[in-house]
Amino acid sequence: MTVKNEGNRRPDIRSLAAILAALAFLALFVFAGVNASTTLKETTVSTVMPLPKLFFSLSSASILLIPLSVVCMACALAALISRQRNVAMLFAGISFVTFGLFLFFFSRETMNSALYSPLSDALKEAGVKFKKRDVKGIDVSFQPTVFLALAAAGIAMLLSMPGPGREEDRRRIRRDLLPYGYIAPHLFFFIIFFITPAVYGIYAAFTKWDLFNEPVFIGLENFKTMLLDSKNTYYQQLRNGLWNTVKFVLYSMPFCILVPLTLALALHTKSRGNKFFQAVYYFPSLLSITTVTLSWRYMFSPDYGVMNRFFGSNANWFTPPYSWIVIVVITVWWCTGSTMVIYQSALASIPQDHYEAASVDGAGAWQKFLHITLPGMRYPLMYTFVTSVVAQFNIYGQPLMITGFANREANAVLLMYIQENAVKKQVAGMSAAMALVLGLCIMGVSYFQLRLMRNNVPD
């Protein structure tokens, strides 16, 4: 039996051929292209758009099928290498279908902005004067390499299919594919709405882009400007926005951990009405940040807010340093509920025998908390610490609606500059570079926290 299993694990001819077909699809995709032409005033111009460049244009909904097809074929290749042919068949089939759908829908488009830009440049070089509305349509055709890539995807799918077998083999196929059936909807949206924007955002960071025309690759110019040119506005924006973001994280993180932990400990006593108070404390986390911020803005209003009337103060809560207090209060009030529920679950998992044994030994409440409660909640505490830091680095709505860019941009965080430059000033390339810097900072902090968690794991 052992010899038979080892023999089954050896890659056979069909598996090797399927691996080659998957690699052929990925290679052909890189070199494949789309032919486009248009005729205006008896002048015909044409251009060739490579599929990778067409993907980065994201000029139509059908192009979103390209990253889905490529990622699924990469997953099929990984499954083939790990000798999971049933899984490879599933991903290769999805890649084949999505790539075929892309060819079908894209060929039916009569006006694509990614193809219009090079064609319009060719018309201008030919001396044709025109407006965009004069171009009635663009003729699209695919190069032979596109159809070869589609054929390679189909061959990879067919070679990954198991032959007609026994009922036991069919049950094994269903068992292997059932987990992927559950995650398929999430995987689809993850690729379309996370991986694709992430890849495109990284690419945009190295381009000069105004959101309307095609991005122009300029290398590291955006990073040189905002990191080294001290006389440039973007240099000042990066420093001020990133520093304000870090300050907010430092101000809010202790309260984002201690306040939920205190409430969870209080509710863990099972006093009368604890379920009601648990619902009350959790309710703010169900609201949108816009609703929460606007509600607290009315409460802190220097003219008619209840805070000044309650404390008998005339303070303007929307100016430093009070503005940071308002922003931190809003954030903690909004985030407390979900973190509190995690801590309640962790407290419920600590055996009561430990507390009873500690009471017999004469331990007090504080000693029980230090030596039983905190060690028992170590992993939930570290998890919420990591996720809270990542969430607070993405601060945007609270300072935007409380102060905006007022007070000499004293509360302007980096995401506010990113949105301002991309949408209003239409400097999307620089905004993408700032976003990439912020993402790298979050990754660095998260990596440090994860290493800290691993070092605390007992041997």
Give the N-terminus to C-terminus distance in angstroms.
36 Å
CATH homologous superfamily caption of the largest domain: MetI-like
| Domain module tally | 2
Task: Provide the succession of SSEs.
Answer: HHEEHHHHEHHEEHHHHHHHHHHHHH
In spatial order, strands of the major sheet run: 2-1-3
Say what the CATH topology of the largest domain is.
MetI-like fold
User: Which regions are unreliable across 5 or more consecutive residues at pLDDT < 50?
Assistant: 1-9
User: What percent of residues are in strands?
Assistant: 5-15%
Helix content: over 70%
Question: For this structure, what is the CATH class of the largest domain?
Answer: Mainly Alpha
Shape: flat
Number of strands: 5
Structural class: mainly alpha
Please give the largest β-sheet.
3 strands, antiparallel
Please give the radius of gyration in angstroms: 29 Å
* CATH architecture title of the largest domain: Orthogonal Bundle
Task: Record keyword descriptors for this entry.
2 domains, three-stranded antiparallel β-sheet, 5 strands, mainly alpha, two-stranded antiparallel ribbon, disordered N terminus, 459 residues, 5% strand, single chain, MetI-like fold, 71% helix, Butyryl-CoA Dehydrogenase, subunit A, domain 3
